[in-house]
Amino acid sequence: MQEVLAYKSPEILADTPTHFCPGCHHGIVHKLLAACLEEKELAEKSICVAAIGCGAFIYNYVLVDSLEAPHGRAPAVATGVKRSSPDSFVFVYQGDGDLASIGLAEIMHAANRGERITVVYVNNTVYGMTGGQMAPTTMVGQKTTTTPGGRQPELDGFPLQMAEIMSRLRGVHFAARVAVNNIKNLKKAKKALLRAFEVQKLGMGFGFVEFLASCPTNWRMTPVEANERVAGEMIPYFPLGVLKDAVAEEG
Amino acid sequence: MSKIFVKGNEAIARGALDAGCSCYFGYPITPQNDIPEFMSTALPKAGGQFVQAESEIAAANMLLGAGACGIRAMTSSSSPGISLKQEAISYMAGSDLPGVIVNISRGGPGLGDIGPSQGDYFQAVKGGGHGDYRQLVLAPGTVQEAYDLTMLAFDLAFAYRNPVMILGDAIIGQMMEPVRLHRRKAQDSAESESWRLEGFGKRMPRVIKSLRLAEGTLGKHNEHLQQKYTAARRECRHEEFMTEDAELIVVAFGSIGRIAKSTIRRLRQQGHRVGLLRPITLFPFPSRALQDLAENGKRFMTIEHNMGQMVEDARLALCGLAPCGFYGHLPGNLPTPDDFEGPILKEFNSGT
To answer: Which CATH class is domain B3-199+221-234?
Structure first.
């Protein structure tokens, strides 16, 4: 019987155990990212700007030239990278605390300037690395270590919907929200990511893909429960879909 | 070589361009606005990139990004803005990244005023941000020097893969003087070839970071940084004026050094044996020069436009070899040579 290769891992994805908790979606996003970079033949010219938090260690897993940015500053660092090395393919990997809280100024202005970079934004509604504190994306009522009674909008405000905010900026040429909680969504996520890469490749402008992700450890859930929460609680408030696609609009 | 008549701020911008700087990231703040304004036209014309960032924080992080790509880049600001840049400077130091930061400092603390001051000496030479690191600090005393030292700053930043600061003030930044220009040079891309990011291409991927979690690695890295700072001592620069037969040496840097020089010239005419030592590198501090003079029996005093900062480094360098007095001029007004006459004479006479 002839052996058929059914699956091949991307070459730039490190063949190593990750530090991620069981059921965490970061690993899936990493793999998707690596696959898309290879599919578009961008890996060799890529510069990844890693942020602070669980996703900071992306450079241990997605093996491309990488740079560490201070907390929240990745879009500014990436601006310096892309402006000084315009031939490089530059992507940023940020979590929700990094991007939507401490780094709100940097993400807004990099997007508004239409920097030719791609932002991969992983939203799991909680600060993961530091042990589960409230994030700017924490759902109303969600219990965290700093909202033990659940997030109260009258005190803590509402979860920020970054993909929608990004899509309204003129410098943004692609904005989408995706999830990796099932195969169907994973396929759509890949399509969106490839599209965001295309926007940079064509030199059009800023691409933004928000990934809804699980954090079983800090949600105090099993991996299966956490995966179900993405569909049951997150997607209704953070609807999936392509919010802006200038490639399609401009034909 | 052509000669132009410009403000110190413009001389710094021109020095950067002539040193092969191709990216500038800034944010408006007085009294350094001439730098981004000049760069916004001149840099794109020279084929470079100018970005007015959303904040000083972002500007410094853009500098970090360009530095990681091995590109000669600069940011500039003034005191309150320099405070905001400290986070990125610490990361740059921790990641062995080059970059030039200009501080045309003003009076503080807080919003202070927009007049000249040397209140940022400690911040500049002792690290400024978190962690155990240093940046090289150059303090121009003339507009020509502002131009020359900016060119030097880029060479040092890449030679040591470390942030380098130009520490000026509103006097240096806003004063006009003739400047003799050098031939513009393009950056030699070989200077960053062995470490810069550009996509892995046919080599192994590179990672530039300051996070070192594995047992022992951070300690080792700190050791490496300290060795770098020790090696940088060879870059010590200073100017001496009438020190040979002087009994009292005034130690003063930047614009204050130059004002003190006028006072010393006047006191010499009156027959007082006083001289000047003007540190040009503030880190590394020209300790050896002070020690040599002390061994020849000189006494010292620092004159600063602050309430006593460099005097600590001077006393540390002298380590009891000779006494070192201090006169501090308050921020908020421009000192004249007259202002320093009394304090220098008082110190001079106290030892006789």
So the answer is: alpha beta
